[in-house]
Amino acid sequence: MPPTGESALAEANPRPSGVPSARVTRPRAEYLDDAFGVGTAKPRLSWRIESASAEWRSDRYSLRIERDDGTTDAVVVDSDEQLYVPWPFAPLVSRERVWVSVRVRSGDGVWTNESESLAIEAGLLEPGDWVKKLISPTSIAGLNDAAPLMFGSADLDAPPASARLYLTAHGIVEFTINGRQVGDDVFAPGWTAYEKRLRYRSYDVTSLVHKGANDLRALIGNGWYRGQLVWPGNRSSYGDRLGVLAQLEVNFADGTRKVFGTDASWGAVPSSILFDDFYDGQRRDLRIADSPEGKVVDTVDELDGDFARLIAPSGPPVRVTETLQAVQLLTTPSGKTIVDFGQNLVGWVRLRVSGEAGARVSVRHAEVLEHGELGIRPLRSALATCEYILNGTPGEVLQPTFTFNGFRYAELSGVPELVLADVEALVLGTDLVRTGWFESSDPRVNRLHENVVWSTRGNFLDVPTDCPQRDERLGWTGDLQVFAPTATFLFDTAGFLSGWLGDLSAEQKPDGGVPYVIPDVLREADPAAAAWSDAATIVPEAVHSAYGDVDVLRRQYSSMRAWVEKVRGIVGPDLLWNTGAQFGDWLDPTAPPDDASRAQADPDVVATAYFARSVGILARTAATLGLRADGEDYAQLEKRARAAFIATYVSDDGHVRSDCQTVYALSIVGDLFESERQRTGAGQRLAELVTAAGFRVSTGFVGTPLILDALSMAGYPELAYRMLLEESCPSWLYAVSMGATTVWERWDSMLSDGSINPGSMTSFNHYAYGAVADWLHRSVAGLAPSSPGYQTVDVRPLVTGDLSSASARHLSPYGEIAVGWKLDQGQVDLTLTIPYGVTARVWMPGAADAEIVGNGSHRFSSLFQQV
């Protein structure tokens, strides 16, 4: 038993004197730096250790808890762990607030100073904690009506000691108390598998309430719940009635608590928002006050809230993360006024205007210009337009609330005397912490990497969407599975992706089928597509690899296993997946504009390779979780699946059926060979195909994340660089040369003559091909995780002479890892910074053996020999 209570407090004394050789930083609970409203009674704890000494090692940690009533306790554990350590105290109860601090002991018996305290407050952990009701207007707020404003009051007999608001909705909600907005998040409560998992959010509203009457208002938009999704006219995917559930709990100095919130006493009126939709935009009449005064008040109905499906968030919300000033005003050949923000982004346009009451202002959004005019064709049916009717107040601020757009350009009409200073873009996205950076000696590659970052920022908007502008914006599984390693390097996506995986499990069919989009609004009867549905295995492994969280594998294991067993039933005894419709190597550049699935790669080869990959992931996962029987079963199944692939699709000399870049990339990276002759032959054939293509990319969604790795692994790193640096279409740098500021969906989304690709799948903000950034991080800069959570890393930069320098930084769970190299006059100089808890194996170019280093800063040099 670890010591607890007084003995633990006595043992974990602060360092008595001198400068501490290490310190504990960044305590967090689960995936949260701000642990307010956590949804578990036993949140796991993590922290970083900053040590000035390479020899310093911890062997114990002490956790101290302070409760709201002033009592304290401590626990000492003999362990050097610092990630996701189990909660050692009594489980939290709903609403409980505590402060936890950490110190660790070195092997010589000296404790560090105590970390800063982490405040942790539990949300509502039990369905019975909810006493208020989900309400909806009785008569107004139909599908074509104005957004409803629902309102009630809270009368306080005394000043509050503290107050909390717990909030969710059918739709999206903007809540105010006494005219002041609650929180700074957007589109609350977010998009989940609503029928099974409805997120709620917790807010500290102590400063917003006061003694006496308090005005409570909830403005409700359609959002994902009732707005258009998937195709034109498809609305009410989850229900035809908007609703809100708000529970305001006020605590007083005498220890009592009163609960206010939504119930049958509330009323509803139409708001100034006459229309709102994510695809089509928003229409607002600013002459209409958003208040009940002077309006006929509708009653509300209490609906079934099904409190058992309410969940707390595991990651941050959507917020305004940046404001960009417009960079230029343009007049189109047809005489229209267009604002250029200089960056393709996701968010809102904010205008300051002065005009007569009743005047109309329109803002239409698009990502590109086509022959000088707004390029709206890629929007398909999405109107992407915000309209305002002015109230005549000088300097009115026009900004939407319940829509978002993907755009670089905005066409404005009805705006008198427009000046640049009056136009801004508010950037929206899930408020993820940036954790990864890359830079090289080639500014084109740096722009490519920045484009990947911007596409992540825009499309990681509550769920990982494919695109932000047209009538789609869905959580496609295939896009995410290829991009997950890149995303986990660039941003702290642990909570974000874990929440999405929870929805994947909830939406999975009883037979293990995995929908193509999560949350599932396509509602296919029998979803099973290689590379898309395989997100069920690939994404959990990517999250575990990046963050070292074994529990994500434990939570997802039944889902992973169900998917593999589903395909096991499809492939039958020959273990070849050669039946059923497939997306294949989606958007292969040779595919016709309106048939993205017509790729060079044989879909049976793609599907069978993915089956082998998922089985291998499941085998490793079972072993990690200590499930010995499953581990052995799936390891054997992987061997047989690989053998079936090789026997059917790979010739003795290494040629792979359908003989294109993608099938060789799949085979080489997956090592789907049984002889060195096959490996060598496949590598040679891939090199021939790449050279014959003029070093242009000939892969779609499946092959693109693997092609440069395959060339490097096959012994052709110089060809990988030639492909990376090629500017003619199709290539990564073609879009950069055309002025792209995000990653395109098609290699040729914009044709060289300035016209837009005629295909229906034409987005200018689509992160899938940005998966190349993973190769930039791991191979070009040379920073690759070799064990979960970056506890060990391989530093092995791929130096060919094509670049003269490259660097990468990553804020791992243990702290910042940074590597940078420069090539100058035949010598490679490398610098490396490693945090406490991480060990690096370093291979300098040409070295046969690695040097192993730990915490600290290191320098290496070697002579360079041209590859």
From TrEMBL:
Stretches the record annotates as Disordered: 1-24
Ranges of residues in domain Alpha-L-rhamnosidase six-hairpin glycosidase: 434-780
Reactions it catalyzes: Hydrolysis of terminal non-reducing alpha-L-rhamnose residues in alpha-L-rhamnosides
Enzyme class, UniProt record, top EC level: hydrolase
EC numbers: 3.2.1.40
Recorded GO MF terms: hydrolase activity
Keyword Protease: no
Domain Alpha-L-rhamnosidase C-terminal: 782-857
Ranges of residues in domain Bacterial alpha-L-rhamnosidase N-terminal: 160-322
Keyword Hydrolase: yes
Family annotation (InterPro entries): 6-hairpin_glycosidase_sf, 6hp_glycosidase-like_sf, Alpha_rhamnosid, Bac_rhamnosid6H, Bac_rhamnosid_C, Bac_rhamnosid_N, Ig-like_fold, Rhamnosid_concanavalin
Pfam families in the cross-refs: Bac_rhamnosid (PF05592), Bac_rhamnosid6H (PF17389), Bac_rhamnosid_C (PF17390), Bac_rhamnosid_N (PF08531), Ig_Rha78A_N (PF25788)
Keywords: Hydrolase
Annotated ranges, domain Alpha-L-rhamnosidase concanavalin-like: 331-427
Domain of life: Bacteria
Protein name (record): alpha-L-rhamnosidase
